[in-house]
Write a structure and sequence with these properties.
Layout lengths: L1 E2 L11 H14 L19 H4 L3 H18 L1 E2 L13 E7 L13 H14 L5 E7 L3 E8 L2 H9 L4 H4 L9 H12 L7 E6 L11 H6 L7
Parallel strand pairs: 3-4, 3-6
Antiparallel strand pairs: 1-2, 4-5
Helix pairs in contact: 1-3, 4-5
Length: 222
């Protein structure tokens, strides 16, 4: 909050001498009637007027404060700031072949890869990230999105069971995985496009070799 005439706020300082004057006046005030002892009145209940005796003065001080604020003309301002954030378009290509069920990494390779990928996604809040999974064939699990909550939820459902149960052909078609990821990035207008490959083997399936897939587009790979 800002004030158009902040000098008027100094009027609030008038409250200080007014309070001092009121306190000193109360101490010097003499009683209307003097009695040798007040013990006889100790049992009497105080009327409501006793508790309201200082209210007029308090209201006067509040009035001074409010008047000062009004004269100072408090104002609020809306500040707009344009911030341009340049993210990267990223496709994760994750191997879900049955070899990823090996338990040389705990609990197994696929779960270890998912943990690493999830940490990576959480560390890239401004990037557009999608997910391709592959075994002997490849398909897009999640198109590129900045809604990483949705992406992570879908990522948790990634499993090598689809290859183990014959839902997709087993094997390691790295070239097919890269080609699928590249197809998602080819129309991107981002200045930086990246494919991150998570696999435990060498290409042994698919009609497209990894080198051919890499030559399909000018996409830097990691």
């Amino acid at each position: 909050m800002t004030f158009a005439n902040s000098a008027y706020l100094l009027l609030m300082l008038l409250v200080i001498p007014c309070v001092l004057w009121y306190v000193l006046r109360g101490r010097k005030r003499r009683a209307a009637m003097s009695v040798p002892t007040t013990s006889m009145y100790s049992g009497l209940r105080k009327s409501w007027k006793y508790y309201l005796i200082h209210v007029p003065f308090i209201l006067d001080m509040v009035a001074i404060v409010l008047l000062s604020l009004i004269l100072a003309r408090p104002q609020t301002t809306d500040r707009w700031q344009d911030t341009e954030i340049e993210g990267i378009d990223i496709m994760l290509a994750v191997d879900v072949s049955t070899s990823m069920l090996a338990e040389d990494l705990k609990p197994n390779r696929i779960e270890a890869a998912k943990q690493v990928a999830s940490e990576f996604i959480n560390g890239r809040p401004n990037d557009n990230i999608g997910l391709t999974i592959f075994a002997g064939e490849a398909f897009t699990q999640c198109p590129m999105t900045v809604d990483h909550t949705v992406l992570l939820n879908m990522f948790q459902n990634v499993s090598s069971d689809i290859a183990a149960n014959g839902i997709i052909e087993d094997g390691t078609a790295i070239g097919m995985g890269l080609a699928n990821a590249i197809s998602r990035l080819k129309d991107s207008e981002a200045k930086s496009k990246v494919i991150i490959l998570l696999t435990d083997g060498s290409n042994n399936r698919g009609e497209i070799s990894p080198m051919t897939a890499a030559e399909m587009g000018s996409i830097p790979s990691a």
